[in-house]
Design a protein that fits this description.
The protein is 49% helix and 6% strand. The chain has 444 residues and is an alpha/beta fold. The protein starts with 27 loop residues before the first helix and ends with a helix.
Length: 444
């Protein structure tokens, strides 16, 4: 007699490897069959309705259909649900009661990822999206000194933004990142740490920073702050010798071959660092998640990918592991007052706990209000003409929490989420990365 199906999961969710090399993965009829199965389960549950625009879109399609069931929704309309999914993973990690090992085996984000891959394989992708996800190419061009000044000025000039919206579909009101010609790599050129590595717990006491395209070319300041904080705590820091984009933007586009190319460039560099005794980190949670989760699920049989996964830490996870072993200084000299801290989705789904909040809470005279709700940015979703309004709707509760907190500081582990909140606040206050606040509290 078969065991009865449980109503929900009583065990931690587990992820299956992504079967992207299987030809059936790209079979549209097979995809639609699985989407209908999963959408029917989601329709009967509806716990995730508040997370993003994918679920309201799905439920509206069902409720407005002739049957008021999933079988009444046109298959062509399934992609409207896909287009609103930016793979935050919150439904899988925080809401869904039917994730594996439950018998229903529901992984909504990776189903949406499969649909994005099918769309990409069919050539159903906009030129704008190819450009926005080509972060290395765009950054190399926009980071040229004179070009950076022109690009940054144009991004703040309303008439130019209207042209950009009309020509490329980048919303005129979306906040775009500035480009820095004085990159993090230039700022840390010749840097030589004098600290001596001291292992503690899971940490080996010296860490290599994967610069990421955003930290290197758009916002290098937090990278400098991270180095200062680590070396204040006796942790030697180096930059990885070289890097390309981690591949997350191309993953979200469904361009798996581009992800593979980035992996084949980055993984040998990072695996060599691990072999030389270095731990690894990055200041963009999405990049960290790429090495911790997505690449290992795409390449489960690659030993170097698994090696890098085991050595990769969120920066605050790393510092708090050191604190647990008595190896983190708490000689803070400045109080921060009240901090409104937004916990980014791609940090939350790493299942490490609220390590950033825990470290901020170590600072005397500091009150931390944590906001655990998606900002709706996703790197590209919030800047697209057709999705910007939805992204501003998603971030509105976060903005209201920050506004009501009347905090001395606000910010997010995800710098882009911080600036999206800034775009909603419109009060002239800029976000501060938590590592910048830590450096400020140390007075270094």
């Amino acid at each position: 007699m078969a065991a009865p199906t449980r109503e929900g999961n009583l065990e931690a969710p587990t992820r299956h490897p992504l079967d992207w090399l299987n030809p059936d993965f790209y079979n549209e009829q097979s995809l639609f069959n699985e989407m209908e199965r999963v959408f029917d389960i989601c329709h009967g549950c509806r716990r995730c309705v508040s997370l993003c625009q994918s679920f309201p879109t799905l439920f509206d399609l069902v409720d407005e259909s002739a049957t008021m069931e999933v079988d009444g929704v046109q298959k062509a309309d399934y992609m409207k649900v896909v287009d609103h999914c930016y793979l935050c993973d919150l439904c899988y990690m925080t809401k869904c009661p039917y994730t594996p090992p439950h018998a229903w085996n529901l992984d909504f984000p990776h189903l949406m990822l499969r649909a994005k891959a099918v769309k990409f394989k069919q050539g159903d992708v906009k030129t704008r999206d190819r450009i926005l996800t080509s972060t290395d190419a765009v950054g190399n061009l926009a980071g040229i000194p004179v070009v950076a000044q022109v690009v940054n000025a144009a991004n703040k000039f309303a008439p130019a933004r209207k042209v950009l919206e009309a020509v490329l579909g980048v919303h005129a009101d979306a906040k775009l990142p500035e480009y820095q010609s004085n990159t993090l790599r230039k700022r840390l050129a010749g840097h030589d740490s004098k600290a001596v590595a001291e292992p503690a717990g899971r940490t080996r006491g010296k860490i290599a920073l994967f610069a990421t395209c955003y930290t290197n070319r758009n916002e290098p300041g937090p990278g400098e702050d991270f180095v200062a904080v680590c070396e204040h705590n006796g942790i030697p820091v180096i930059l990885a010798e070289k890097e390309r984009c981690c591949g997350m933007p191309k993953l979200e586009l469904g361009d798996f071959e581009a992800v593979k190319a980035a992996k084949e460039f980055n993984i040998p560099v990072l695996a060599k660092l691990v072999d030389e005794g270095w731990d690894l980190t990055g200041l963009i949670p999405s990049c960290v998640l790429m090495f911790k989760q997505e690449l290992p699920l795409m390449f489960p049989d690659d030993p170097d990918v698994q090696k890098v996964k085991a050595a990769f830490f969120d920066p605050f996870e790393y510092l708090m592991l050191r604190h647990k072993e008595g190896k983190l200084k708490t000689d803070f000299t400045q109080q921060l007052g009240k901090v409104a801290y937004h916990a980014s989705c791609h940090q939350r789904v790493q299942n490490i706990g609220p390590k950033t909040r825990e470290m901020l809470a170590l600072i005397p005279g500091t009150e931390v209000e944590i906001i655990e709700r998606c900002s709706g940015h996703d790197g590209t979703y919030a800047v697209k003409k057709e999705f910007h309004a939805s992204s501003m709707k998603i971030v509105k509760p976060v903005v209201e929490r920050v506004r009501k907190a009347e905090a001395a500081h606000y910010g997010s582990d995800c710098a882009m989420a911080g600036h999206h909140i800034e775009n909603g606040l419109k009060d002239g206050r800029a976000p501060q990365h938590p590592i910048t606040l830590i450096r400020k509290a140390y007075g270094i």
